[in-house]
Specification:
5 strands, alpha+beta, about 90 residues, two-stranded antiparallel ribbon, about 25% helix, Ribosomal Protein L22, Chain A, three-stranded antiparallel beta sheet, single chain, about 35% strand
Length: about 90
């Protein structure tokens, strides 16, 4: 459930939801051993993220029992000029 919530939050951070030809498959939740989860964009979602000034997606996940929550933030490489488009 948390991965589904992460993809939904990522699409909302892009400002599209499932519109504009976006697909759930273009967003992948990855977790490196011992590291935080990340949301990797590909295809149309990556193109849109880059067009909006973002180069990566920060991700926070939480779950308790059957409930899950995710927050995604599209950010650029320059931390002083981050794209402040967040969703939860």
């Amino acid at each position: 459930a948390a991965r589904f919530a992460a993809k939904e939050a990522g699409l909302k951070a892009l400002g599209t939801g499932l519109r504009l030809g976006m697909s759930w498959r273009e967003l992948e939740v990855r977790r490196e051993r011992g590291g935080p989860p990340t949301l990797v964009l590909s295809g149309r979602s990556r193109e849109l993220g880059l067009a909006r000034g973002g180069s990566r997606m920060l991700l926070a996940l939480s779950h308790e029992g059957e409930y899950a929550l995710a927050q995604a933030m599209l950010v650029g490489d320059d931390s002083t000029n981050d794209v402040a488009r967040t969703t939860s």
